[in-house]
Amino acid sequence: MTSLGLYLTKKSVNRALVSRRTRISQARLSQLSSNKSTKLRAEELYLIALAIDVDPGELLKEVYKDLKLPKEC
């Protein structure tokens, strides 16, 4: 499961409702939630945040919390 999938599950988000509000297909939401190789586009993240009534910055931080800058040489 992806970070987005874990976040949506933790928040008990109704994915069918998110799909209707954002016009992101349920199949795409399923890919974004379960397949780590699927790339989340910025506009998708923003629309999902609006649909579940959370700050887009909060969702961004949660989804990419493990992303770090590379160490300098």
TrEMBL record:
GO terms for molecular function: DNA binding. Residues 8-61 form the HTH cro/C1-type domain. It comes from the Bacteria. This is Putative transcriptional regulator. It comes from Winogradskyella pacifica.
